[in-house]
Amino acid sequence: MGLPIALDRNSSMSPENYEAWKNLPASNSSCRLSRTGRSNTKLLWRLIDPGWSMTTRKLQRIGVAAIVSIAMAYPAFVLLFTWAHVAVSNLPGGRHGPLDAYRHTLASAVVAYTLGAPVVEVVTGIMERGSKDSNRMDRHNNRIGAAIGARAGNFSDIEPAVADQIASGMVNATKSNQITWLPESRWRKGMAW
To answer: Which stretches in the chain have pLDDT values below 50?
Structure first.
């Protein structure tokens, strides 16, 4: 059952739209515009302004495209920033060593600074849910990175703070505020994951 619409023959609409509205069969006594099962408001606007539907779709597509662009741009920003610093760091141990710890700590610090430490917790929970030593190491270093990012006063403070933490890190560190990595025998070559 449709809702009553306050539209009569004296309403202002183009002659073409008025004829279209006037010739619609009534499905019930309260609403002349509910014959297609569409919402009355949507159908009414299509009659008054036929371009409304297309404009709305275009705006929705633009909105979705903007959201997707932002959603893709942010991870690209974090990765580019992190990898730019990783590439010039001269740290050993591409995977599971100091370089891996640096990469995780720096990326987590950037995310915590820009989006907040809870986002780092969520992403870490998804990405590092395994029980391997490398997963535990990454979770530990991500927490430290999140703390660095959360307390950074400026974005430019992040990398030096991470570098300081790496300088005081060690193999299998047990302190909650000390960067850790695996023994050198478990390091893997390469800068990528």
So the answer is: 1-11, 28-38
